[in-house]
Amino acid sequence: MKSRALWVLLAALLAGLAAVWLSTRWMRAQTGEITRVVVARSDIPLGTRLEPQMLQLADWPRSSVPTGARDAVQALEGRVVLTALQRGEPITEARLAPQGARAGLSAVVPEGKRAMTVRVNDVVGVAGFALPGTYVDVLVNTVEDGGTGGAGRAARERSVSKIVLERILVLAAAQEADRDSTRPKVVNAVTLELTPAQAETLDLARSVGTLSLVLRNHADTEAATTRGATKAALLASVADVQPAAPPPRPRVSPKAPAKRPVAHTPTATPRPSIPTVVVEPVRACVEVVAGPVRRTECF
Predict the structure, then answer these.
(1) Predicted TM-score (pTM) of this structure
(2) From 158's CA, which of 174, 199, 269, 296 has a CA 20 to 30 Å away?
(3) Is residue 151 a part of any domain in this protein?
């Protein structure tokens, strides 16, 4: 009985080993041959000089090894990275500055380009969203000389706002050049990547007026053709949208004071006249005979 149990256990062990061997062969058939490449041991910011403790070897399918990857840590010692690297990411030649480049922002500036710093505040710096790796337009607000004509200096000058540089890459914000950060940060200066001609334009613009940065979409590559905004044009456009003034009210001449109605006293209707009848008083008369004389006396 015991020998039978041992044979069953041995058969199960052999079956397990066979399953492991077959699965290993299957995985190797799927991934191909395995090789080793140098990867980042931890996150590495751009502009950092590589040291052996920052790197390690990792297994990588030979069929998908990135172009320019290295298989020896010592071959990358002292090189400067041009872009930030994540932990476990293979280090290729395209992500490294030329041999002998010094660490820092200067190694990140491409050949033929320049880095120039401008002073900003929370408004000019787009509330801290002008981060390394983003693209901005540079806007200048200045007073333009309109010529010698006109009456007085005020007539010859006009305030104008104009975009002078477009799609400028932000290399660093203050002393930080990490392009992986997305959290806004208000700084007092930003460093821009420019061509020599653009650097001259920016230097002139900041000397003649006030600069502002305008954040733009990373995928937007079209140039904006504008003539600039002037104070006169701005006020004219505001006047166009103002509501029309109400029509003046018609003048009404003062009216003459109304006459008060005269109260008519009702006229009494004349009564018909009644003939006056004079009633004579009734008198008593007595005839008096005195001898031959007779007289009548009334009383």
Answers:
(1) 0.56
(2) 199
(3) yes
